[in-house]
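Problem 12. The chain below contains 333 residues. Write out its predicted structure in token notation.
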Amino acid sequence: MSAQTNFRRAFSGKRVLITGGLGFIGSNLARALVALGARVTIVDSLVPEYGGNRRNLAGIAGRVKVHIADVRDWPRLPRLVRGQDFLFNLAGQTSHMDSMSDPQTDLDINGRAQLAILEACRLHNPAIRIVFASTRQIYGKPDYLPVDERHPLRPVDVNGINKIAGESFHLLYSRVYGIASTALRLTNTIGPRMRVKDARQTFVGVWIRRLVEGELFEVWGGEQVRDFTYVDDAVEAFLLAAVRPEAVGEVFNLGGPPRVTLQRLAELLVEINRGGAFAVRQFPSDRKKIDIGDYYADDRLIARKLGWRPRTDLRTALARTLAYYRKELRHYV
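Solution.
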């Protein structure tokens, strides 16, 4: 039986809530769930800095419910979680620099609001199944490569500290209250519908925007090694984590082959784009302080337990993303 067949059986007719659902990964997840026959409800604050965009629902807008609401608005949470079968919790503040300049807001969204969501579930829907979007940023600068789930958690910025808290709340509520939760530690997810207006979500978005606009883009440092996950592969991991009992109470790294230096990534983008230019610059001092250096994930645990492996090679991921923004850029700047 195929994974898609299993997913259809698991999600068809089920009520699914996606926080941050107008954002990059959330909207791609919504599209997949609609195709599987789920009854999808989206919660998004549409705060301009956080990546939500109504264009992300083009073609499915009439098939989902959308609540413009902020997860910091705690009194609204019980009504939103009540009756839902699944919760994909992707609401968050993702900018590392913003977390350093405005740490209280980052704490409110990535810490306090996550606890409030879980309390709403405990009190009003303890049978809900939750998958939480965590991040590789919580590891900080790696002691060894590839980084597995046993690596020490030593974040280099406020965002990483608060994401640890959010992840830990989910695992605690799973262990103590039986609210079945899984955390996925994402790494450099790329693809259609990602934020390209600025680097709050990913630097790759800014590179792609400048390429499409015919402008030079900057590569800071260039020697750092990274891995990248295409958004369709990330969506599959979320779906698997939601339906597989082996995932309950677990944390999984996502990765994506191959690992490349940032300079090589820039060269590949220009090559795929059949034109463009970039300049390698010295790392800005304020960002250098919170740069993690080389990082790539050991994703063997999720492969072994859930059978997940990235299907999309880097060249294909970049080509699909570039093609999307050649058509859609005006909706994202």
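Discussion. The two ends are 42 Å apart (CA to CA). Students who got a different answer should revisit the alignment rule from Section 12.3.
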